[in-house]
Design brief:
With 187 residues, this protein is an alpha+beta fold. It folds into 2 domains: 89 residues; 71 residues, Alpha-Beta Plaits, CATH 3.30.70. The chain has 5 helices and 4 strands. It starts with 9 loop residues before the first helix and ends in a 15-residue tail after the last strand.
Length: 187
């Protein structure tokens, strides 16, 4: 069974390439399908699920039948694993491109005289402020609508200005009007 583990033939290299691309497509479709499910696109998720299952079954039959015919081969295992990893990478890249999430971010500064509102506006964020009251007294509550891609920069600005500020992030499903950093006529 393990006699052909390191055996190299052009036929095995061809099957390895087929396995690589089949696994890559399988994993990419699976990754994008999950995003479609989360976003509530049921029809697209169902179609992608069907396609993913068909490719997965094709791949399983291909790998198993090849292993039975010619024995387990290191090249098939390597290309299967490489296809899986490449599929994850490509799937994540595609998910970032199709998942331009818009976030609602609420910031409660730790001090009532925090300069955070001005700092965020100076850096291009649209900030809506209102008064809130809690156990620690009155605070200005800052509300920002932003793309997910700007979240890391926003967190960095908030942390630099006020390490104890509270930050809550929520995904928005739909939005009309208003001002958003880096989004022009897309909404």
């Amino acid at each position: 069974m393990f006699d052909n583990l390191f055996n190299f033939k052009i036929e095995i290299l061809a099957w390895s390439a087929i396995v690589f691309f089949a696994v890559l497509i399988h994993i990419v479709i699976g990754t994008v399908r999950v995003i479609m499910m989360v976003k509530g696109n049921r029809t697209i998720a169902l179609i992608m699920g069907f396609t993913e299952a068909a490719i997965g079954l094709f791949n399983a039959i291909l790998v198993v039948s090849n292993a039975v015919k010619s024995g387990i081969n290191l090249y098939i295992i390597f290309f299967y694993s490489l296809g899986f990893a490449a599929g994850l990478g490509l799937g994540m890249f595609i998910s970032q491109k199709i998942s331009r999430d818009i976030l609602s971010i609420t910031i409660i500064p730790s001090k009532s005289d925090s300069p955070l509102e001005d700092i965020l506006r100076e850096n291009g964020f649209g900030v809506t402020c209102y008064q809130g009251s809690g156990k620690e007294g009155n605070r200005r509550v800052l509300s920002i609508i932003s793309q997910k891609s700007n979240l890391a920069n926003l967190k960095k600005l908030v942390t630099a200005a006020d390490k104890k500020a509270m930050l809550a992030v929520h995904t928005i499903d739909g939005l009309t009007g208003g001002f958003l950093l880096d989004i022009k006529n897309k909404i």
